[in-house]
From TrEMBL:
GO BP of this protein: cell adhesion; metal ion transport
InterPro entries the record matches: AdhesinB, Bact_metal-bind_prot9, Lipoprotein_PsaA-like, ZnuA-like
Protein family: Belongs to the bacterial solute-binding protein 9 family.
The entry's keywords: Signal, Transport
A family per Pfam: ZnuA
Name by which UniProt lists this protein: Zinc-binding protein
Any one GO molecular function term: metal ion binding
Signal peptide boundaries: 1-22
Keyword hit for Transcription regulation: no
Amino acid sequence: MKHILIAASLLTCLLFTGACQKQTTPPPAAGPKKLVVVTTLFPLYDFVRAIGGDKVDVRLLLPPGVEAHSFEPKPEDALRTAKADLFIFTNSYMEPWAVSFVKGLNTGTITLVDSSAGVAFQKAGVEEEKEEHGHEGDHHHGGGMDPHIWLDFGNAQIMVANIAAGLEAKDPANREYYRANADAYRGELKKLDGEYKAGLSSCGKKSFLHGGHYAFGYLANRYGLQYESASAVNADAEPTPAKLMALVRQVRAKGLKYVFSEELLSPRVSEMIAKESGASVLLLHGAHNISKSDFEHGVTFLALMRSNLASLKTGLECK
């Protein structure tokens, strides 16, 4: 009996000690709170990823693999965005719904950042939307301005500065961190710009033709190239038969060996023009969005643009 009492006493002591240890052991220390940032398009997502580093939790509103021009947020997007600290959009021509979308959340805590502040916009080509089949009045890019500002790397540097300013305002304690990362990334964009200027300086052709919507006007303008697209800015528009035949004649007259297609859209029009003119098809990535596979593999804006440069050098017969 004496042994049983001693064992029971020891067991009680161990149990009590264990209980006390469970009660007094502090929970693991939580890491510093990250800024939650929601962006509309992939370039913004990648810019925030580079500038914010481990201080931010950046999320892409546009699902990977979805074409950007026809996207409008759904109720579930509103629920996810309501928890954000910052909402960063491209510009009012690309996302005319952005300001009202954020205001409609009624949180009062989300900082809205227009990445295009200070950018000089240019017209979206010369063709009127009414000349395209089946989409008159559907064009949601107001004012006839080209929203694809990120494809001018000077504009991209302005966008990076605007994003950094938004992060600094929301999280002033990490101001120097954001500024240093933004400066470094702007340096990468300047380097990329130099690569384009050098790579496209000695080319057999100065014109490129694209079987998609008018997306590469800024890029063409920056490097002194002539650019023609099958459709206007609306990615859903279909070119008329007359437009297609005019493009085929242009390819033949200019002796172009390549026609460009774009990401996440059918290459059918580009292939049709190429077949009729004897040309081949190359991909030119507008970087509005990326595929699910590219997203999972961490593809970057800089990598996409360097791939574009390689395609342009081939298509323009550069030395």
